[in-house]
């Protein structure tokens, strides 16, 4: 088997990442050598590869689904928004510029060449490459310089499957509208539809699928049922609720529930750090944007952010700074991760990200932070509570610790902890030890479940995605597209054709 496929979507969060990961796992289980690819990703949720490259976290998850190591070629262009107007551009795993939308547009022809080179490289090393689009292929205002959807499909001769989220409503209109807005050349690549997040009896959907096929001359390639509770590594904040929608089942010995409030920062990044807490039996994770939502928390988490100084100002505007100070003064546990750790410092000197200069931090940890031009990208390994801990670092801020107790290359002072390490809570022994200490400080009779394995839970989710494709998609048709490429003779459907 040899070939490639592009999975596009009618909208953001339609299910492109899920379908791409599912196809990767389904093929990997058949012994096919397969790799994921996303030419351009816009996300604050990223990961560091073994050789120190930063890529979208979704592509790292898809690589895990394919049972291979993630690498920069799988996501050659990553955009990390710092505001509504500007983003950091990461190319082949390294930051190269901070640009506005119009400036970035001028870079796209060169970035398309890089993306095509990476795709060709992957296709030379793997039997199959499953590509994921970005946003919608029908963003006609951006088509002339598109590098992730139909621009990539045409340049690389890829067949395209479009995924639509029926749970949002209007799936048939969005699918037909997507096709109708494409040029004749682009339409030639669009080969079929996948309906995602369906609830109910698929027989009730069949008349609509039949009519869609008649109108578009493209077949339905699957109806995927809603799978709640997957908690997969999302690209953006659209799926944040999925991390915290599970009622806790109680600790290992039926003791009290441990309540965790996570501050939902405006430019929240790497929110997958919370995933391991949310899947721990007996831990209730909630998002917080108001001081009163911290009042009964046994642990408050300040997560990562792409805009430390701006989000710190937001924190103060809402009175969350006083609430955090009050909780810490009373001995209640507070954990800061990466940008959240930087906020807990005495001072922040930022001439790089916000260019705000010297800014007072929350003053809850004996740390002074200075932003460096070079970004730290690393996969550190250390020890805490007698447990081995592996994590990853993505930050410009460099923390100079002036006291307290060393903790994961960060510091602990009293009931406040801070670290630059993402992913630390995914280490089972460390997570349980940390939760035991939190419970003691909070006066809770909480006992972590001794056999909870986060890696096994993630693997089980990826298998569920493979099952989703195997059981509910037209796998024979998908194989024909992968091996046969762009189908011949697909009719052009002009706007308003019905």
From TrEMBL:
Domain spans labelled CobQ/CobB/MinD/ParA nucleotide binding: 6-229
Pinpoint the CobB/CobQ-like glutamine amidotransferase domain residues. Answer: 259-429
Q: What pathway is this protein a component of? A: Cofactor biosynthesis; adenosylcobalamin biosynthesis
Q: Which UniProt keywords apply?
A: Cobalamin biosynthesis, Glutamine amidotransferase
CDD domains for this protein: GATase1_CobQ
User: Cross-referenced Pfam families, in alphabetical order?
Assistant: CbiA (PF01656), GATase_3 (PF07685)
What is the superkingdom listed in this entry's lineage? Answer: Bacteria
Which residue positions are annotated as catalytic? 338 (nucleophile), 422
Among SUPFAM superfamilies, the record links this protein to:
Class I glutamine amidotransferase-like (SSF52317), P-loop containing nucleoside triphosphate hydrolases (SSF52540)
The protein's matches in HAMAP family, at most eight in alphabetical order, are given as:
CobQ (MF_00028)
Q: Which family does it belong to?
A: Belongs to the CobB/CobQ family. CobQ subfamily.
Function summary: Catalyzes amidations at positions B, D, E, and G on adenosylcobyrinic A,C-diamide. NH(2) groups are provided by glutamine, and one molecule of ATP is hydrogenolyzed for each amidation.
Under PANTHER family, the record lists: COBYRIC ACID SYNTHASE, DETHIOBIOTIN SYNTHETASE
Name of the protein in question: Cobyric acid synthase
Name of the coding gene = cobQ
């Amino acid at each position: 088997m040899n070939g490639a496929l592009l999975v596009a979507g009618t909208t953001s969060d339609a299910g492109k990442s899920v379908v791409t990961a599912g196809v990767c796992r389904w093929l990997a289980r058949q012994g096919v050598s397969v790799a994921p690819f996303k030419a351009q990703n816009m996300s604050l949720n990223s990961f560091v590869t073994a050789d120190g490259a930063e890529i979208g976290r979704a592509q790292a998850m898809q690589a895990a689904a394919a049972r291979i190591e993630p690498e920069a070629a799988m996501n050659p262009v990553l955009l990390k928004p710092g505001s509504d107007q500007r983003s950091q551009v990461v190319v082949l795993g390294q930051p190269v510029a901070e640009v506005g939308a119009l400036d970035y547009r001028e870079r796209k022809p060169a970035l398309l060449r890089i993306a095509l080179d990476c795709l060709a490289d992957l296709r030379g090393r793997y039997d199959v490459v499953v590509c994921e689009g970005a946003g919608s292929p029908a963003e006609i205002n951006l088509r002339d310089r598109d590098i992730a959807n139909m621009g990539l499909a045409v340049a690389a001769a890829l067949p395209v499957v479009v995924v639509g989220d029926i749970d949002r409503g209007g799936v048939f209109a969005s699918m037909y509208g997507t096709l109708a807005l494409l040029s004749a050349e682009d339409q030639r690549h669009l080969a079929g539809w996948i309906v995602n997040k369906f609830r109910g009896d698929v027989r009730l959907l069949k008349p609509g699928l039949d009519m869609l096929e008649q109108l578009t001359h493209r077949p339905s390639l699957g109806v995927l049922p809603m799978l709640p509770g997957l908690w997969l590594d999302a690209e953006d904040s659209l799926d944040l609720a999925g991390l915290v929608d599970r009622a806790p089942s109680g600790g290992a010995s039926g003791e009290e529930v441990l309540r965790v409030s996570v501050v939902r920062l405006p430019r929240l990044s790497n929110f997958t750090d919370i995933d391991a807490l949310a899947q721990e039996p007996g831990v209730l994770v909630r998002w917080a944007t108001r001081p009163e939502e911290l009042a009964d928390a046994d642990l408050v988490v300040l997560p990562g952010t792409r805009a430390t100084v701006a989000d710190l100002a937001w924190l103060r505007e809402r009175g969350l700074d006083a609430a955090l100070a009050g909780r810490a003064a009373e001995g209640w546990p507070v954990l800061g991760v990466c940008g959240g750790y930087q906020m807990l410092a005495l001072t922040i000197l930022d001439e790089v990200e916000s260019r705000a200069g010297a800014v007072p931090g929350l003053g809850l940890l004996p740390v002074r932070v200075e932003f460096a031009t070079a970004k730290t990208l690393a996969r550190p390994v250390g020890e805490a509570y007698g447990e081995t801990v592996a994590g990853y670092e993505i930050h410009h801020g460099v923390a100079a610790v002036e006291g307290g107790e060393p903790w994961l290359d960060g510091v602990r002072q009293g009931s406040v902890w801070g670290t630059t390490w993402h992913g630390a809570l995914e280490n089972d022994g460390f997570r349980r030890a940390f939760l035991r200490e939190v419970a003691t400080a909070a006066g809770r009779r909480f006992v972590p479940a001794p056999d909870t394995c986060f890696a096994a839970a993630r693997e089980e989710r990826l298998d569920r995605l493979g099952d989703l494709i195997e059981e509910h998609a037209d796998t024979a048709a998908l194989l024909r597209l992968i091996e046969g490429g762009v189908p011949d003779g697909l009719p052009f459907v002009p706007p308003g054709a019905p």
